[in-house]
Amino acid sequence: MPLLDFEPDFAGxxxxxxxxxxxxxxxxxxxxxxxxxxWKLPAVSWKSLQNELVPxxxxxxxxxxxxxxIRRQNMGIITGKASNNVFVVDVDLHRNSDAASWxxxxxxxxPNLTDLETVSQTTGGGGKQYLFRAPAxxxxxxxxxxxxxxxxxxxxxxxMPPSMHxxxxxxxxxxxxxxxxxxxxDASPWLCAEIDQLAERYGGRTIxxxxxxxxxxxxxxxxxxxxxxxxxxxxxxxxxxxRVVDLRRDxxxxxxxxxxxxxxxxxxxxxxxxxxxxxxxxxxxxxxxEREGRGISLFRHKWKIATDQWWDKVTEHAKIEKPTxxxxxxxxxxxxxxxxxxxxxxxxxTVEPLPDGLYExxxxxxxxxxxxxxxxxxxxxxxxxxxxxGGAPGSGKSFIDLGLALSIxxxxxxxxxxxxxxxxxxxxxxxxxxADMKFRIMAWEQHHFVQANSSPFFLIRQSINFxxxxxxxxxxxxxxxxxxxxxxxxxxxxxxxxxxxxxxDENLQKDMTVFIAACDAVxxxxxxxxxxxxxxxxxxxxxxxxxxxxxxxxxxMVERESGASFGTMTATKIKYAQDGWTxxxxxxxxxxxxxxxxESLVAVLAEERPKEKLVWPxxxxxxxxxxxxxxxxxxGKAWAMSKNAHHQAIRHVVRxxxxxxKIAKDILELWQTNAVIEIDCCDKKSKKYGFKVIGSIR
Length: 698
What we know:
The chain is of the alpha+beta class and 698 residues long. Helix content is 31%, strand content 19%. It has five domains: 13-215, no CATH class; 232-319, no CATH class; 338-368, no CATH class; 375-605, P-loop containing nucleotide triphosphate hydrolases (Rossmann fold, 3-Layer(aba) Sandwich); 619-693, no CATH class.
């Protein structure tokens, strides 16, 4: 626990250092900002300080009354084992949209938002740092990413308040989330898994040893701009050896100064062609390469090894005639576009490059003779289209899409009041809720008085990775097999999108574009509509990249409060027809007709949605709410409505009364207006504010 007598308004460097040490954190003095130089580093040798707290004698030598660093403002912590497994999540929210998207994704994924309520600071540069404590069975990695999210885990270092940034602004603990106000949160297993996934995707774990930052090999050799990021040492070795052998061919005797000049010129060429995997704004690529052990020091070492062999191996290689220089190849563009073709007679799928030459172009007359869109379902789903059904978990979107799929396969005349124009095979890809799938189908049959046994409805329940070309080809072959036996599918459903994108970042356009391309391959080969079932964020919009909104021909958004019988389906986008309309639907409990008496839900169009009954809880229940509210205030844990508290007051009212969120919010607002409750400070030390009971409802 932190020091109880710590006074932030009057604390000096020694006080802050003792605060951190009292929390079991390895605090060390840090360098002062120096223009043009790396300064976010300890001011002491720290290799030996990465696994356990320094002895009290060492700490006193640094921060005692006459300590060597007692007047030094800048300090930091060594993360990992030395700090009882504390690690830091550093997010550049203020200047990197990818970082902001990743953190929003983490907020959306959190099973319990209190998992993320932890000690946090705003750096002098404007970024955010969140402190967590790693579980004993997981070692937090240390690495930097290209999206502005850095993790300081085992052997890492992070600057701490009251340090001063080079901008002239101090590092500050966030109000209400200071180490003397809240505990450092234990990292939940799901957060550890997300960090491991981030490490794997954006350069892997990086650990500093002997002054060299070691980075894991990425799954690509060049970055988006063509700079080499994998195989740099091999590239360096080949470059140096080729130049030294060429020099030996041209001049048997050369001076040391000439070799030095040649080396410097060659290094500049090398540095232009390679890129460090470390991302650190304001630090040159040369310095970052040097930090990775792929810079000028290694280059000099390899150059010396090569030139030391001037009279033996270099001379032998120089006798070999230099290969004739091939004419430079024309710069390559993106991989050629391909088209997928299904042969109905053989059932084979072929992949053919699109022909070179001119692009097809149409004049007005030809445009007017183009065929009209052919709808599968009137006003919503066209043939060969791509769409998304979006909604929060439990909203009923899967039941809606399953009903649509069964309606097409069993030749129903309409779905949700709209005419179905095309019937035929349907393929449903899912590995969610498989145990209940048969009961969902049986309940749908019972409600609609339909026997679906002989209908061409096909379930693919294996896990499919839409990011892997091999999986997509296997899927296309599977669909081709079904198409040969029956007919090309009218529609293919993917439930859910996140399940077919293992390891992908839904916030990155390039990842989601790969998913869209996989869906396009199915559409192109079979002329089918492809419909993805996708989750929404806590804000209610489609989770992840906006690429979905741009690529989709139609988007249906499903909303339903947890446990409610009725919900809404809104057409937020339809490319070929009117959008903006909303249908009410009802989730009905239907007996499956099985001998076990099982029941399941069926989503059906509601004739008229009943108006919500705005019935308040009874007086005794409301008084219970006030009683628990005051108890929380007295314990210094007042219910709050701030952004960081995630509207916990509403959640508590719903928990106690069982009412809806809307009624809970109305209750709190009315009580504030009538002076039943007010917002006050429940803990002056932590400056935490929340609701306090000041009146009666009787």
